[in-house]
Specification:
mainly alpha; single chain; 12 strands
Amino acid sequence: AVLERARENPAFLTPILSEKSLLPMADNSLPAPVARIRGLRAVRESCERVFSLAKAGKTKFFDVDEGKLDRAAGFVCGVGLSAYKVPANIPFHSRLRHFEPDGDDRVQRVLVDGSEKKGFDVLRSVIDLVVVSVLVDAGAGRAWSFREPDTGKTFHSSEGLGIASFHMFTSGSFSSMSDPFRVDAEGLAKLSLDAVKSGFQVTGENPLVGVEGRFELLSRLGGALREHPEMFGADGRPGNMIDALGISSGKKSVSVDELWSIVVDGFASVWPASRTKLLGVPLGDVWSYSPLGAVDEDSGAHLVAFHKLSQWLTYSLIDAMQSFSECHVAGIEAMTGLPEYRNGGFLLDMGVLVLRDPSVAETDHQVDSDLVVEWRALTVSLLDRLAPYVRDILGVSEEEFPLVKMLEAGTWSSGRKTAAMRRAGAPPINIVSDGTVF
């Protein structure tokens, strides 16, 4: 039924954004337009506005061919089933996957089996790890790799960043206490750029794109943890969010809006102050798109929200909470596909997205350019439209196979596969990265 509705009327995928649909922000003094664009539902709503322009032929760079979605879905299912055999085995697209790319479940082996932590203490540590690891998980660049000291294995890209951050975490790089398996504000305050470079094995021959930006982001994380003791406790620890959410008190279900409020409000000051502002407030991963009209400070109607790292963090936190406690996170259908170059590159490689002028792929583009914003927005909307095709082939429902599972097995994996087949792993469009977006 979902598939038929998607084919007959794609507009049914567009949610209605209303004041009632948004969880009140922790900072109730925020102007309403700022609260709205920082809300979770603003991602899908603003991307749908760009998609509507594309359908009307009013975008600047891309055409959309929805007739290729069925072919793309077949490719995704082939990649997913080759990795996981049956849909029931497919896990969440989560940072936890990047700590076990070789089948070695490092989190279980080190933080659970190899420590004296039990119950919620394990969950606090896993959340601490997930937060710092997600925040350093922007594109590493093709020249960088990480050689794991104890195994001698070499990892690249997101897996390399994941394994490197795991080892920094377990060595106590982010902790101010005798317990190394934690992150806290004081520990982050003591972190140096040299320590980050050493942890990620950065040298002239092994350069990591945006390493300074990653360090600055971690430094700002320490400040954000201190700013919100009501969320992260007096010691400024990410894992203490389970107290704010009531999980440590036995709460069995929280809403995704409750978790999103902690992520978007609690970590708001992590993002560079130079980012897009509305009414003087930095918005994070939100960008202006000129075809939506002139800058409108009253409504923010010219803006497109992505919140990519925040959503990636939220998906990863949900996975951690549901894996290491009995708490269920409800309402994840409000979240979207992730607007990054693997998902977007897959759609380009499959012909669902088509560059009107292929020569633009020959130059580098800034993350705030209309081309990149348009590419990312159309990626979000097309992932919504791809999902019903994938579920139809697999014979599963949305409840059984939420969008986060399709990302894992796998538009993200499919994007990596098509990039390897066509461009030796490179994305189809080169984006200048500072290590804080994607």
